[in-house]
Structures are given as C-alpha cells and as structure tokens.
Amino acid sequence: MPWVVWMTFLFRAGLLIFLYSLLWQLASFFEIGRQVSAFYPAAGVILYFVYRFGPAYIPVSAIAIMIGAHPVEPIWDWGVLQVTMAIRQLLFYSCLGLILRKVQLFKMPLIRLSSVSILISGLLVTTLLSAIVATFLMDHYLSLNSQERLHVLVSFWVGDLGGVLMFMASVSLFLDYYEKANRDEDLFINGYLRPVILLVVISTVTTLLFIITGLQPEYSRFGYLILLPVAWAASFYGMRFALFTAICVNITAIGHYILLGLDAYPAIELQTLFSVNLAMAMLLGASLEERRLAMFDASHDPLTQMLNRRALFSEGNALLERCKRQGREMALLMIDLDHFKTVNDHWGHQAGDQVLMDVAECCRKVCRHTDIQGRIGGEEFVLLLDDATPEQAYTVAERLRHSINKVIVPGTKQAISTSIGLSHLLNQEDSLEDLLRQADVALYQAKEAGRNQCRSVMISPTPSVLSEMAS
C-alpha cells in the first residue's frame, strides 16, 4: 500500500537526519580548524543510506547536512565556503553509495574479504578526492599557506576515512547481531559471553596503555600497541568480534583523548591510529571468515548445508569411537524419500531442490547439538544420534517421518513421504560401515512393507510399541 511506503520512507528519512545530526555534533568535539574535524563519521550516514535504500535519500541527506550543522552554524549564516563544502560532501559520498549499489561483490554486513576490500579501497579514493576538493575550496576562500594546505589535506583525508570506516563497521556489526539474534534466541549466552568478558580485559589494558603513553610524550609512539588486541580478536574470533573490539578500542582512545587532554598524540596521528585500527580489524576478520567459509564449503553439501559424505564419515567415526570409549549407546537413521524421482520428473529440479532443503530442515529440528546429520546421496540422509537407546531412536525416527510428511512440493498439494531404517551400536567391533549396512537392510524392509514407515534392527513396530512410544 502507498501509505506504508511513505511511512517507511519518512521513518528512514527521520533516522538519517537524526543519525547525521548526532554524529555531526560528535565530530564538532574534534574540530582542529575551521571546517576541519579530526574524526568525521557523519559522512558515513549519507554513504550507507544511499547505498542501502537508493538515490531517493540524496535530497534527505542534503536536508540532514543543513539541519546537522544548525546548532553551531545556522544555514542563514552560511557563506559560499559552507555551501560548497556541503555540496562536496553530498556529491562524493552519494556517488560512492550509488557505485556500491551496483557492485555485486559488495554486501552488508561485512563478512567476505571482497566486500571489505571494495569498501576500504572505495573509501581511500573517495576520501582523498573529497579532501583534495575541500583543500582547494578552503585555499580559494581562506588563502591558506603551503603548510596549512598540507595539514588540511591530510586531516580531511584521514579524519573522514577513520570516521566513515567506524560508522560502516558499527552498521555492519548491528546488522550482523540483528540477523543472528533473529535465528538464535540464546545468541549472547552461547556466542558472546566469553568474548565480551575478554573485551573488558582488553579495554582495561587499552585504558592503562593509552594513559601511560599519552601522559608521557616520549612514550607516545607505543600507543600503536593498542592495535594488538584488535589483531588478536580478528585472528581468533573473526569479523564480528574484531569490529566490536576495534570500535571499543577507538571509543576508549577518544574518551581518554578528550577527558584527559592527552596532548602527546597529534590529531593526525590519532586519526591514523583509528583508520589503521578499523582497516586491520576488517581485513584480518574477513580473512578468518573466508577460511571458515572455505572449510565449511569443503565439508558440507552446498544445497542442504548438511555434512557431505566424506565429512559425515569423518565426524561419524569420531562420535562412534567416543561412544565406545565412554560406554554410551548410539543409533543411526538412514532416511530415503519415497518416489523422489517423480518430483524431479513431474515438477522440475527446482521443486526437488526445495523439497530436499525442507527435509534437511526437518532433520535439523529433531537433532540435538551433539547429533550429526549428513546427506550421502541424492535423496538419502543419515542421522547419528549420540547416547540414544533403540526406543529413543525409534521415537525420533517417527517424529521425523511425521514432520517430513508435512513437506509439500512447491506449487502443488503433493506431500512427501519417507522410509527410515535404524541400526544401533551393539558391539565394540561394529564400525560405521556396519551400522550403515544394517540400517540399509532395515530401510529395505520399510520400503518392502509399503514405504512411509520406520524399521529398526532392534524393534518390531507393533501397535503396542508404537502407542507406548507416542505416550
């Protein structure tokens, strides 16, 4: 509905103006000369909104620039310099946003090394060109000397680069947390409690280091040691925690720079520290994520995201040995979809692929985190249930069968059925291949009995047994 579109546009426009105004005021705390800030994240707001939501937000960005500067420099007091500087900012960062929209390899949140490389290289060029134009304008209207021109050029370039990188890193982190939180209700406890505790330690060490080096001019060069925790976080925890650490370290440095007046750090050196900190976090974090993705792709089926045959045997043998060593039971479920070939023949491979993905999701839902799931053939899946008795395994198999019966072929009313064979770890001499052969025999019995049923080498599915399991 049109009113929904308009309400969404007005909400985003209001958010853009609010964020820009807030960050403009933050940048004013780092003013090191007329029209020059040592740290300018506000331009990142324009870049992101134009990239994410399109050219309709360029006029909104122009309004944000006028409103953002209002408390300090009301628009009616602007001269030609202020107007041209505002146009410069709007032009460069809107253009970069529009370019990023067209680059297919660039995605937010930042995970892939390609996205990080495109962002950093794009910002290096954009901020440099913006700084050159800003220096030219200020020289034209304020008549700068050669030393002042160099200072303005470097300050503009590195200040905008560090500020925009920090804003884009913050947005990437927010998007990543938001997406993960929607999929995992226990995200913080399961994934971030230990890193956050470590981050507290890092921030404390950073605080002490920055105070010591900042109060003693002869030790100021050692301030770059605050890059070490960021490198450590990126190397061990990947992009998400690397960005989180870099942002916290930068905020810690900013806070001490303002509150304690650490004059041992020239503004340009502090700007460079922020930029290098964030760029290093992005590059190292993305490199680790690339390695993780490569390892995942090598061990998982690309369609269902389940373990492939080779990885299933590797992890399955490890689980089998643990169960033997610790005296635990283990069950193997072999799942085969009934008449699946007709799905591909009648409704196409795209419909068949969707069915396989839906079945894989059904398998994931009945498994615990200690169980193993894999796809070993076209429509064949295997589940390894850790510490499961024959009765428990049969109950899981029946639950899975009923769940798969609810899967519908896309675009039809045709439901899917499955036959499941079960085997169990009975002897210390049993191998994973033995369990697979036994489950395959049970699966054959289920198909011979009419399909859409479960068969176990240990349990006969009499009505009394089934009713007991259902209860």
Rounded average pLDDT: 85
The computed structural class is alpha+beta
Count of β-strands: 7
Give the CA-based shape: elongated
- Helicity, in percent? 55-70%
Strand content: 5-15%
Largest sheet: 5 strands, mixed
Helix and strand pattern: HEEHHHHHHHHHHEHHEEHEHEH
| Whole-number total of structural domains | 2
Low-pLDDT runs of 5+ residues are: 184-190, 462-471
- Kindly, what is the distance between the CA atoms of the first and last residues, rounded to a whole number of angstroms? 49 Å
Strand order across the largest sheet: 4-5-3-6-7
Summed up, what is this model?
With 471 residues, the chain is of the alpha+beta class.
Question: How would you explain this protein's 3D organization?
Answer:
- With 471 residues, this protein is of the alpha+beta class.
- It folds into 2 domains: 2-299, no CATH class; 309-470, Reverse transcriptase/Diguanylate cyclase domain (Alpha-Beta Plaits, 2-Layer Sandwich).
- The chain contains 16 helices and 7 strands.
- The strands form 2 sheets. A 5-stranded mixed sheet has the order 4-5-3-6-7, sandwiched between helices. A two-stranded antiparallel ribbon has the order 1-2.
- Helix 15 links the parallel strand 6 and strand 7.
- The longest helix has 38 residues, at 146-183.
- Mean pLDDT is 85; it is low at 184-190 and 462-471.
